[in-house]
Amino acid sequence: MEFIINYFNYIIVVIIMMIGLWGMLALSNLVKKLISMAIFQTGIILFYISMGAKIDSSIPIIKQAYDEHHHPIHQVINNADYANPLTQILMLTAIVVGVATLGLGLALTQKVYSEHKSLNEDEILESLS
Amino acid sequence: MIEQAPILIVVTPLLAALFITIIGLYRPLYSWVLTIITFVITSIFSFITLKKVIETGTIRYMLGNWPAPFGIEYVIDHLNALIVFMIAVVGLIVAIYSKHDVKKELGDKIPHFYSLFTLLVTGLLGITLTGDAFNLYVLLEISALTSYALLALSKGRAYIATFNYLIMGTIGACFYLLGVGYLLINTGSLNMTDIFVILSNNPTSYAVLVAFLFIMIGMWIKMALFPLHSWLPNAYTYAPTSTSCLLAPLMTKVSVYVMLRMMTSVFNYNYIFNVLGWQTIIVSLAVIAILAGSIFALRQDNLKKMLTYLIVAEIGYMVGGAWLGNANGFTGASYHIIADGFMTLCLFLAVGCIIYKIGDAQISSMKGIFTKMPITMIGFLVGAFSMIGVPPTCGFFSKWYLISGAYEAQAWPFMVALLISSLVNAILFFRIIEVGYFQAMPNEDPEAHPKQQKYNEAPISMLIPLLTTAAILIGIGLYTSEIVTYLIEPFMDNFL
Amino acid sequence: MQTISSLLPLFVVLIPFIGSIIIYFSKKSENVRETWTFLVAALNLVLLLKMAQWILAGNVYTFHIAEVLPGLPLFFKIDGFGMLFACVAGSLWIVTSLYSIGYMRPLKEHAQNRYFASFSLAISATMGVAFSGNILTMYLFYEILSLSTYPLVTHHQDAEARGGGRKYLTFLLSTSIGFALPAMIITYLNTGTLSFSNAGIFNQTTDPTLLIVLLLLFLFGFAKSGIMPFHVWLPGAMVAPTPVSALLHAVAVVKVGVFCVLRILTGVFGIELLSTTSLSTIVCVIASFTVIVSSLIALTQDNLKRRLAFSTVGQLSYIVLGAGIATTFGVVGSMTHIAMHAFGKITLFFCAGAIYVATGKKYISQMVGLGRQMPITMIAFLVGSMSIIGLPLTGGIISKWYMILGAMDAEKMWILVIYLISSLLNAAYFLPIVYNAFFCKDEDAQFPDKVKEAPLAALLPPVITAIGTGILFFYPELFLNFAKLAVGVN
To answer: In what order do the strands lie in the sheet with C60-69?
Structure first.
C-alpha cells in the first residue's frame, strides 16, 4: 500500500504506456494504432511532468514585483514554491513532435486507404501476398 | 565564421530548406541547384571542423553562449567529426545523383523532395553534433519525420511500409526519450558530459540500469538490429530511388553512432562491461543478426531488398564490434560506420542507375548488363568487393579490426559469423555477376536473352557520383591508418 | 648486402596494369592490341632483368607503398626467391602472348580485348605477389589475382564456363577469406609483425597448438597451391581456353599459390622452427598425400587437359613437400622446381592447345598416331614430360635432385620413397601418350588424312619452352642462384 501511494504516478504512467504499446503492436486497425501511439506518447509526457512536480508547488512563472517607479524589485525565489519548468518545456517539444507524428500518420493512413481500400493491416497484408 | 562552423553545419541546411521550397515554386530545377550549393557549403564547414578537431582536440560550442549544464552544447570530438563530414559528403553525392531520378519518379514533387531531403540531413547532422541528450531526441524526430515523408513519396506499397516504419520508429524514439527521462531523474542534467561525470561518481541504481536499457533498445529499433529489423526491408525497398540512396547509408549508421556515444560518453565503460556484463548476450545477438541478415539476403530476388538485408547484417557487425569491449572491436565498429556508409551508398547508387535504365531491380532481368551498362557495373563491383572484404577497399580493413577484436575477446562465434557473412556476400554478388555476364543456359530460351545487349548507360550526372563513391571506398581503405590514428585512437584514449 | 629503395618494383607491377587498361580500350585493330601486349611484356622483362642483376649480387630492393594500418605497411621487398618467381612469370608471359595469338585467331574467339586485358592484369597481380614484403601485401595481390582471372576462366561464357567459374571462385575465395585471413590476423596479434624474415617471426614462447592451427590455416588458406582437398578448382578451371590454362594454371595462378605457401613456410615459420617441431612432418604428410593421390587420379583421366591438371596438382605438392622437409637443399630444390616445372608444364599445355587447334581433339584416346602427322608438337611434348618426370637432359632432374638430397639430409627416407613412386607414376601417365602418338600400328592410327602442324604462332612457343627446359639442364644456375641466395647458402 505504501508502495502504491509513494509511486502512484509512475504506476499510472507505466499502465498508460503499456496500453499504448500493446495497442500499437497488437491491434490491426491503422487508426487504432495511431491512437495507441498517441496514448503511448501521452504516458511519457505525463512521466516527465510528474517528474517535475513538487508538493504544494505552483506553476513555474515568477510574478515580478515592481516598486513605485516601475523598476523591478530584487526578489528571493524559493525553489520549492515552483514546479520544475525544465521538464515542462521538454514536454512542450515532445507534444509538438507527437502532434506532427500523428498528423503524418493520419495523412499516411489516408494514402493507405486510397491505395488498398482497407484500414485493416491484416487484410492489407493478405491482399499483398 | 570559422568559430561558428559547428552551428553553421546544422543551420545552413535548415534555412536552405525554407528557400528551396520557395524557389521550387518558381522553377523546380533551381531547388536542385540550391540543394547542391547548400551541401557544398555544409561540406566545407564540416571539413573545417574536422581539421580543427584533428589539430586542437574536442570543440565545445555553446548555443547562445549559455554555459554548459544550463544551455545546449554541441560537442565535436574525434568520433563524430568524421561522421559529420561523411553525412555532408553523402548528402552532396546523392543530391547531384538525384537530378534525373527525381524528375522521372516524382515529377511534380521536386521542390518537396529537396526540402525534405535538406531537412533530413539537418536532423542527421544535428544528431551527430549535439552534446545534449534531449536535443538529440528533437533532432532524431526531425530526421525521422522527414524520412517518413520522403519514403512515402512513391506510390504503391510504400504507404503501408512507411506506416509500419512510422509505428516502429516512434516506439524507438519514445523509448529513447523515456531513457533520458530516467537519467534526468537520477542526475538532474541533460548535458551528456555532465551526466557522465555524475554517473561516474555515484553508485548506480536500478533506474540507471533501466535508463540504459531503454536507450539501447530505442536505438536498436532505430538501427534495425535483429530482431527489431522488420521495418527496414520493406520501407527501403519500395521507396523512391534517391530516397533510399540517402537513407540507407545514413539513418541506421547515425543510430549506431548514438549507441556508441551513449556507451562511451554518457555511461562509462566500467559500468557497461564490468557492472552490467551483458556483452556475451549482445555479441550473440549480433552474431544472429549477421547470420540472419545474410541468410535472408540469399532468398531475395529483388536486388534492392537483398541490399537492405545486407544492411541488417552490417549493423550486426557494428553492434558486435562495439560490445566486444576491447580497443580493436571498438575501432572496427567506428571505422565500419564510415566504411559501411560509403559501401551502402555505392551499391544503392548503382542499383538506382540500373532501375533508372531497366525499370526494375529483379536480378533475373539483369541479363547481359555488363555489356549494357559497364561503367555502372564497375561502380557496383567496387561496392561488392568492399562488402566481400577484398583489399584494398575499406570493407577489408573494418573486417580486420573486427576479427582482431573478436580474437582478443575470444568471441569465436562472432569471428566465424564475420567470415561466413563475407563468403555469403561473395555468393550473393557473384550470383548477380553471373546473371549479368553469362549468356543463356542451355535450357533457357535463347531468344529471351539477346547475345549482345546494346550499350545504354545511365546519364553522366548519375555515373559521376557513383564513380566518386567507388574511388572514395578505395581511398578510405588506403588511408585507414590515418583515419584510425588521428580520429579513432585519440577518442578511445579518453574513454577506454 | 645492400637494401635500396627503388621505383623499379613499382614499375614492374604498374606497367602491366596500365597496359591492361590500354589493351582493353584499343578496339581499333587486332594488330594494335597485340603490339601493345608484346610491348608491355617486353618492357616488363627488360626491367626484371635489370633488377635481376642487382639481386644476384646479393642485394635487396624495397619499396614502401602505403601504410594502411597503424604499424602495418604495404610494401615490396624483393629477394632472390621473389626475383626467381618474377623472372619465370615474366619470361613465360611473352611466350604465352605469342601463343595466345596463335590460338585465338584461328578459332576466332570473341572478346579478345577483355581476354588480353585480364591477362595483363593477372600478370600485374602475379608480380605484386612475387614482390611482397609481408603477408598483407601478399594477401592483397592474391585476392586481386583471383578476381582478375575469373573473366579468363569463364571466357567462353557458356554453361560449362559458368560451372567452372563458380567452382573456381568458391574454392579460392572461401579458403582465402575463411582460412588465410584469420590466420594472418591471429599471426599479427600474436607477433606484432607480418613481414617475412628468414628466421621466422614467431618466437620460442608461442603456444605449439597455436602454431599447428596457424600452419594448417595457412596451408589450406592459399588454395591456389592445389593441396588436397582444396584442389577441386584446378580441374574445373580447365574450361578456360588453353593459353589461359597454360600460363595461369601451369605457371601464374598455381605458382602464386605455392609461392605463398613457401613464403609462409620459410618467412613466417622459418626453416628452423619447422625442422625442430612436428610442423615439418605435418606439411610433409599433407603434401605427400596430394602427390600420390593426384598422380593416381591423373592415370584415370582421358581428357588431356584434365590429366595435365592433376599432374600439376601433384607437382605443386612436390614443391610444398620439398619445403616441408625444412633443410636448405630441400628448400633450394623446391624453389628451383617452381621454375623447372613451369617451363615443363607450359610446354605440355602448349602442345595440348596446338593439338586442339590443328585437329580439334581433346581426348588422349583420339590421339593415337598423331606423332606421325605433328612430329614437332609431340617431340616438344616428350621433352616437357621428361622434365616433369625428372629425366636427364631436362631441367626437372636438377630440382628433383636437390629435393632428394634435402630429404636425405633430414633423414626422412619415406619421402625418398614418395619421390620415387611419384616419378614412376608420372612416367606412367605421360610416356604412353607419346608412345602411342609415334609407335602404333598403321590400322590403329586415327589420322589417315594428312593433318598439318598448328600455325606457327601456336607451334613456336612449345618449341621455345621445350628448348628452355633443355637449357635449364645445362645452365641451372639461371634460377638456382636465386634460390640459393634466398636460402642463404652458397
So the answer is: C3-5, C60-69, C72-78
One DSSP character per residue, C284-348 reads HHHHHHHHHHHHHHHHT--BHHHHHHHHHHHHHHHHHHHHHT-SHHHHHHHHHHHHHHHHHHHHH
B10 in any annotated domain: no
Determine contact, residues B328/B401, Cβ cutoff 8 Å: yes
Window 393-412 of B: residues touching C by CB (8 A cutoff) are 397, 399-400, 403-404, 407-408
Chain A CB contacts of B170 below 8 Å: 37, 40-41, 101
- What nine digits make up the cell of C389? 618426370
**Residues of chain B positioned with their CB less than 8 A from the CB of A51:** 181, 184-185
Nearest CA in chain B to C187: B404
Determine the angle formed by the axes of helices B303-323 and B241-261, rounding to 10 degrees. Answer: 10
Q: Which amino acid is at C136?
A: L
Q: How far is CA B190 from CA B130, B136, C426, in A?
A: 11, 10, 79
Q: What are B441's three cell numbers?
A: 543456359
- Spell out the per-residue pLDDT of chain A, length 129, in tens: 888 888 888 899 999 999 999 999 899 899 999 999 999 999 999 999 998 888 888 888 887 878 888 888 888 888 888 888 888 999 999 999 999 999 999 999 999 999 888 888 888 888 887
Structural domain including C287 reads 3-487
Question: Domains plus CATH for chain A?
Answer: 2-56+83-128 (1.10.287.3510)
Asked if A93 lies within 8 A of B170 by C-beta distance, the reply is no
Q: What is the spatial distance between Cα B145 and Cα A98, in angstroms, rounded to a whole number?
A: 10
Angle between helices C456-474 and C80-107 (to 10 degrees): 160
Nearest CA of chain B to the CA of A68: how many Å?
Answer: 33
Chain B contact present for A27, CB below 8 A: no
CB contact under 8 A, A108 and B163: yes
Residues of B in contact with C144 (CB under 8 A): 390
Determine, for residues C181 and B430 on separate chains, whether the beta-carbon distance falls below 8 Å: no
Of C162, C181, C182, the CB nearest to B438: C162
> What's the burial of B157, exposed, middle or buried (CB within 10 Å: 0-12/13-18/19+)?
middle
User: For chain B, what is the domain count?
Assistant: 1
Least confident segment among B166-170, B249-253, C46-50: C46-50
Contact C173 B437 (CB under 8 A): no
Q: Which residue of A has its CA nearest to B151?
A: A108
Question: Number of structural domains, chain C?
Answer: 1
Nearest to A115 among B138, B148, B159 (CB): B159
Distance of CA C231 to the CA centre of its chain: 14
A39–chain B Cβ distance below 8 A for any pair: no
Distance of CA C228 to the CA centre of its chain: 16
The ipTM estimated for the assembled molecules is: 0.92
Tell me which residues of chain B have a C-beta less than 8 Å from any C-beta of chain A.
134, 137-138, 141, 145, 148-149, 152, 155-157, 159-160, 162-163, 166-167, 170-171, 174, 177-178, 181, 184-185, 190
Asked if residue B413 is part of any domain, the answer here is yes
CA–CA gap between residue B176 and residue B186 (Å, rounded)? 16
Residue with grid cell 619447422, as numbered in its chain: C274
Average pLDDT per consecutive 10 residues, chain C (490 residues; last block may be shorter): 77 85 76 81 85 78 83 85 86 83 71 81 89 90 90 80 84 89 90 81 78 88 86 82 78 87 86 80 88 88 86 88 84 87 87 82 78 82 86 82 84 84 87 80 61 75 83 79 71
